[in-house]
Amino acid sequence: MAYLLIIICALALITLTTIYRVKASANTPQSRSATPRTPALNMPQSADKATEFRGKLLIPETDCCMAAHALSQITFSLQDQVRLPLAACDKTTCLCDIKLIHNRRTGERRVREDRRTEIRFAPGHPDRRQQQGRRKEDIIWSGGYAG
């Protein structure tokens, strides 16, 4: 049982260290002497391309390092600079890949204006929204909580 707890703590530490290094490497220039296998994926140049993708996903190889395995379920935004091989990669050759996630949204899902806004802001209808809060500190009445 103690060994299992140590292994879980070690995996959590590796995951947090890798996430920190990935985020830190996005803010500072690359300090590794070796050139990365793939360049960082930047934002698309045109406005049409910006809506085409919604994020990036790290696709680890079958025999990947622990760092890639820990980051495999995380969706990165297009602004995140994810470079391969990862800073915490302990493999001699990294075959992991970065995949762009396509945006499947095609347009607005609402067919028309919400009916509540039509009623709420229509001329002749009073504003029925409450002006006071609903917390105990906000409700003061005889016999109740007065703070």
TrEMBL record:
<feature type="compositionally biased region" description="Polar residues">
    <location>
        <begin position="27"/>
        <end position="36"/>
    </location>
</feature>
<feature type="region of interest" description="Disordered">
    <location>
        <begin position="117"/>
        <end position="147"/>
    </location>
</feature>
<feature type="compositionally biased region" description="Basic and acidic residues">
    <location>
        <begin position="117"/>
        <end position="139"/>
    </location>
</feature>
<feature type="region of interest" description="Disordered">
    <location>
        <begin position="27"/>
        <end position="46"/>
    </location>
</feature>
<protein>
    <submittedName>
        <fullName>Uncharacterized protein</fullName>
    </submittedName>
</protein>
